[in-house]
Amino acid sequence: xxxxxxxxxxxxxxxxxxxxxxxxxxxxxxxxxxxxxxxxxxxxxxxxxxxxxxxxxxxxxxxxxxxxxxxxxxxxxxxxxxxxxxxxxxxxxxxxxxxxx
Length: 101
Fold this sequence. Notes:
There is one protein chain. The protein is α+β, with helices and mostly antiparallel strands. It has a single domain (2-96), classed as D-Maltodextrin-Binding Protein, domain 2 (3-Layer(aba) Sandwich). The chain is 26% helix and 10% strand. The chain is built from 4 helices and 2 strands. The protein has helices at residues 2-5, 20-23, 66-74, 88-96; strands at residues 58-62, 81-85. It starts with a helix and ends in a 5-residue tail after the last helix. The relative contact order is 0.14.
């Protein structure tokens, strides 16, 4: 967004959620695709997506995303730890290595 508002670029084509905060500084086109959001975990591990389901779990979130804000607000109080990652690939690697629940 800073590159757009400083006119270094003309448009952003990205998987960006529309939020009231973002609407204050930029405009959005109509949606051109919809991608569902899900919580992922180790294969064959059963879990839900409520704060109680994630109680005591080590969570991984990508920084500066609406998902990080949501996870902190809704899961942060019950999770044992929340780790932040610069990229989703980094979080996926820690999940595969067993460092996230």
